[in-house]
Design a protein that fits this description.
321 residues; Rossmann fold; six-stranded antiparallel beta sheet; single chain; nine-stranded mixed beta sheet; nucleotide binding; 8 helices; 23% helix; CobW-likC_sf; alpha/beta; Hypothetical Protein Yjia, Chain: A,domain 2; Putative metal chaperone YciC; globular
Length: 321
Amino acid sequence: MTQEKKRLPLTVIGGFLGAGKTTLLNRWLREAQGLRIAALVNDFGALNIDAELVAATHGETLALTNGCVCCQIGDDLGRALVQVIESATPFDAVVIEASGVSDPWRIAQIGMAAPELSLEGVIVLVDAAAAVQQAHDVLLADTLARQVKSADLVVLNKADLADAAALAEANAWAEVTAPGTPRIEATQSAVPLALLSGLPLPAAGREPCASGCERDHDHAHHHASDHGAMFQTWSAQPAAAIPAELLRAWLRDMPPGVLRLKGLLRTGQGAGGDEWSEIQFAGRHGSLRKARPPRGARAGVVAIGLRHRLPVHALEQFFAR
């Protein structure tokens, strides 16, 4: 079986001026955990990266000591993407920070034109304290609505600065503007790195067990994540093959509450042996692509969602095969 060449996952961060996009990107770069991220920004000076994290500066490129790189987009996003794609040292993911007044979906479409890239998520931040007031400004309303409608995940940021009424109004506005789009609340752009589309989630079945756990680790297993009480992860290692047609149908009807899902699964038997596929889901969109067998030929899938909203029972029912 011919394996599809691995493509570089691309995530676009959008949102109006002051929503917290740069803070989020800065947080992800600091917490890269060994992952090599290429960040394309309008002005990397605005990232305010600590001097000890900067390894070298070359014109419009800023290299960090953890292997991540920041590149200024300038007037040519396409050229910046080509530089990332052709890098002598491969990256694990590309993140583009859209300007505060731009449409992140148009930026995502530029990335989609490159066959070496795989668009796997548009994350849009909204200032929860200012959203409703801005949405009623005739000069801003269209821009804000267009940004939110392009999102796979809406982050109502600065939730700590909004009172209960303002936060409820911001949630209501986001739901009316983009019905059904997954939405979370955050403070100081504290969004887990695991929600960065395309990056590896914790290996299935590798999380430490709680005291007294007696589960068979070939079956579904879930624990709270390391991102505080707000998020929860779930993982499983399905022993049986799951047909690709069944997986695609399930992706089209994903149970509510799954913010991010990734895995390598056995999907059938071919002339050359087992067939494997990589499953991805972020926000509202899912994909299934042929993949090479994982080390040890052991299937695994991991999901992340809001604590107490992750549909653990539905996940266990589907993947316990």
